Amino acid sequence: MRCGFGIAISMVGIVVFLASAPAQAQALDREQIETVTGLKGSYSQEERVFKVSRPRTDLKVSVEGWWMPPYMGLTSWAAFTPAQDGRVMVMGDLVLLEDEVNAVMSAALESGLEVTALHNHFFFDQPKVYFMHIGGMGDTDTLAAGVRHALRTVDRIRAASPRPAPSFGPPDIPTTNSIAAEPLDRILRVKGQASQGMYKAVFGREATMHDGTRVAKEMGVNTWAAFAGSDETAVVDGDFAVLENELQPVLKSLRGHGINIVAIHHHMTHESPRLLFLHYWGKGKAADLAGAVKATLAVQAGVH
After folding, report:
1. Cα 234 to Cα 104, 181, 221, 285, distances in angstroms
2. What's the number of CA atoms in the CB half-sphere (13 Å) around residue 39?
């Protein structure tokens, strides 16, 4: 009787375990990932991860005058693993030249992927190489198609121009600055700072660090926008301080207004709440650029 009772309890335990086990027990469709991305992959049984990669064999990159093989870190990749509720998670890193970054970022965002970081890995590299980290949760087809769209955007850019572009393109920014401050004050609804024909608006946030010490605008926890050039032909550069759940909406808004993203990273450690910083650069009419910043601030404010 005791033996039978013990078996019964064990069987109940097994049933409960199986019933509560997450749907991540489902196997990845590796063939589907390869078909959709157009890339061959490798599978880690231990971590249940299927990883596809594409070395940037089309690039000739030197670091300190040494020609770097793709094996040494010039390979784009995307890794897929099962998640809960039958979904799949993807994480990856795309190796990009400067003139590829923003088109590829838009392609990734439009395809349902997230962009989580943008930075350099080397110094003294020619041409400059940047690394854009991507992620996402969803079904296999959508995520794999997003990776394919991002990589095919690279192919399209390089097919149109084998040599990397030296700039974002026209217009050229005037060498003499003559930005009118009042119109930008009205658009941004803030009293900005004017200096030698340039203009800057700063929007503070608050956080705590380490032992609970408060940090805010003057300690660098802020979003800012600086304008130079003329009212008709201006440049704006700046920084958005975002919470993690604000990052994707802010990126989509800025890219939707034609603003280029040039870096995504952190500035601090041990802060609460967790803050990320994205740096941007745009050219056009000063009022239009200020309108893009204002619209993005509104999008950010609407994130809950």
Report:
1. 25, 13, 26, 6
2. 24
pLDDT in tens, 30-76: 999 999 999 999 999 999 999 999 999 999 999 999 999 999 999 99
CA distance 261 to 184: 21
Q: 5: left (phi > 0), else alpha (psi -120 to 50), else beta?
A: alpha
Strand order from edge to edge, sheet including 207-209: 213-215, 207-209, 271-272
> pTM above 0.70?
yes
Domains of the chain (ranges, CATH numbers): 23-160 (3.30.1460), 181-301 (3.30.70)
Neighbours of 262 (CB within 10 A): 17
